Task: inverse folding
């Protein structure tokens, strides 16, 4: 549905605003150069502080006299007085110059048939239409040949427990530059063409309540402006996050039996003074992956939170160590293709009016060693032969 | 109509990991079956897609129409029977006749013999230790 909307909106806007300028631009490559005289050249007042150029010229083609008021491929929109004046100064009244005449219809002529950058704005709705078309075609292909987004299968006979490694594990928070750079580049790429669209909308509205095309362009532009604003806010947020304190976590072992101990060490590298509250805790959580439509989604539910440290004393922030005693009845880590029971040490620093700090490090809880089962139940899985039962 | 039944010794359904499940599989079939299979397996239930694994099985080819078969199947050390809001792990003994019918018996496998319920015993707030000194102090949670 969304892709269909993209396709229709993209095509409508492309056709309404760019089809005629582009076809004129392409056709004008074959038009004939003809002498002409500028008869009118003045800046006319549009709505508000804007002006519109009025340039008319006369020419003779195949023995007949014609007049035209079209300067360029893209019709000029209301602009500032300086910009309008710059255009009419190029074509003062009485100027003898050349124009380009359509031999098939000599009533149509241009003073300037050169390429205008505004024509590139058409790429934006075209790209939107292309996204819509691609999405629709992909949906069509999926409907014909449904793809299976299943996770890779678990090797046959594998135990449903993550690989346990008793060596120490550590993790540090990333700087976040890549995320910021990606968000900033996206915001820039998104907002550059959006700016041209917005400028057109502002110009249209500056002349008063617009007609059908103006409303269409406004409605079309609004979602792009909103997304562009979100992109800017996201980039700013990620920029601020780059200057947040960066925690490091270290666990004395990557796996621990239920009832066992594990040392948790944390360290902040910089700007710890900004933290108002620091919490270190352990989370046990369930994760279920299921099919939602044609994709897989994963839900998480925390079933236990074990607080280790909760402090507002800034002298405790920089680094510290705490010993975690995993509860004896803690359910061991479990991992199959779509279901998971996982454990993680989390460190969270709250910062006022700034992005918070968060880092987690998973570890494996293995079953605690069990006493051997009684002798009478240790017999191998010997299977005596089946014996017929007497018919009742 | 075929009748298949799993009788566990003493009706016991709770086991510790590594224990051997013993009992007798009994069947009375309408028509001869090509094979009867007895297996012990875990399977997941809950919001996620179902995962399952057969850990041990016994196959009987060309079984009699009426018969019984004592069995002793060892349980692995893991996973335990677990019940959560999103993830549940169940253990089952399955008796399957090809073609024919099937029967199953649910088992509970854990060190205590009881199903582990996720989130059943959260720690009390008094478990929160005081903040440790910034250096090498250790506390227990």
Result:
């Amino acid at each position: 549905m969304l892709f269909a909307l993209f396709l229709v909106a993209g095509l409508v806007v492309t056709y309404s605003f760019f089809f005629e300028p582009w076809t004129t631009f392409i056709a004008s490559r074959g038009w004939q150069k003809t002498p002409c005289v500028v008869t009118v050249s003045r800046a006319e007042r549009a709505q508000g502080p804007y002006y519109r150029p009025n340039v008319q010229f006369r020419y003779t083609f195949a023995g007949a006299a014609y007049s035209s008021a079209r300067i360029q491929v893209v019709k000029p929109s209301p602009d500032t007085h300086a910009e309008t004046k710059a255009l009419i100064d190029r074509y003062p009244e009485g100027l003898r110059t050349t124009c380009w005449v359509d031999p098939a219809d000599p009533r149509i002529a241009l003073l300037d048939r050169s390429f205008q950058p505004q024509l590139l704005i058409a790429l934006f709705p075209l790209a939107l239409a292309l996204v819509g078309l691609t999405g629709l075609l992909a949906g069509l292909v999926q409907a014909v040949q449904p793809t299976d987004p299943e996770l890779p299968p678990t090797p046959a006979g594998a135990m449903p427990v993550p690989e346990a490694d008793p060596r120490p594990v550590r993790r540090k928070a990333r700087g976040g530059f890549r995320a910021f750079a990606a968000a900033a580049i996206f915001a820039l790429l998104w907002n550059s063409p959006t700016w041209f669209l917005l400028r057109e909308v502002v110009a249209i509205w500056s002349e008063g309540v617009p007609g059908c095309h103006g409303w269409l362009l406004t409605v079309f532009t609004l979602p792009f402006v909103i997304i562009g604003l979100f992109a800017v806010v996201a980039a700013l947020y990620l920029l601020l996050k780059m200057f947040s304190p960066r925690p490091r976590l270290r666990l004395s072992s990557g796996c621990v039996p239920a009832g066992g101990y594990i040392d948790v060490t944390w360290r902040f590298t910089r700007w710890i003074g900004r933290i108002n509250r620091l919490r270190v805790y352990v989370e046990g959580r369930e994760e279920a992956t299921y099919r939602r439509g044609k994709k897989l989604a994963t839900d998480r539910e925390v079933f236990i939170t074990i607080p280790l440290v909760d402090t507002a004393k800034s002298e405790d922030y920089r680094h510290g160590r705490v010993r975690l005693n995993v509860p004896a009845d803690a359910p061991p880590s479990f991992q199959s293709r779509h279901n998971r029971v996982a454990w993680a040490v989390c460190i969270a620093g709250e910062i006022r009016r700034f992005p918070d700090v968060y880092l987690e490090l998973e570890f494996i809880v293995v079953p605690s060693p069990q006493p051997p089962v009684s002798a009478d139940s240790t017999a191998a899985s010997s299977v005596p032969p089946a014996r017929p039962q007497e018919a009742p | 109509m075929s009748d298949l039944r799993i009788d566990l010794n003493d009706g016991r359904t709770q086991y510790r990991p590594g224990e051997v499940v013993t009992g007798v599989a009994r069947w009375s079939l309408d028509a001869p079956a090509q094979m009867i299979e007895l297996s012990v397996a875990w399977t997941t239930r809950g919001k996620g897609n179902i995962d399952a694994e057969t850990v041990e099985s016994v196959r009987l080819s060309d079984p009699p129409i009426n018969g019984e078969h004592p069995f002793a199947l060892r349980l692995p050390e893991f996973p335990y029977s677990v019940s959560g809001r999103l993830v549940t792990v169940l253990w089952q003994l399955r008796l399957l006749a090809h073609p024919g019918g099937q029967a199953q018996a649910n088992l509970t496998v854990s060190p205590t013999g009881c199903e582990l319920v996720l989130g059943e015993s959260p720690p009390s707030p008094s478990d929160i230790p005081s903040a440790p000194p910034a250096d090498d102090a250790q506390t227990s949670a």
About this structure: Chain B touches chain A through 66 residues (CB under 8 Å). Strands of chain B lie at 3-8, 14-15, 20-28, 35-46, 52-61, 66-74, 82-83, 87-98, 102-109, 116-117. Residues 96 and 102 of chain B are 4 Å apart (CA to CA).
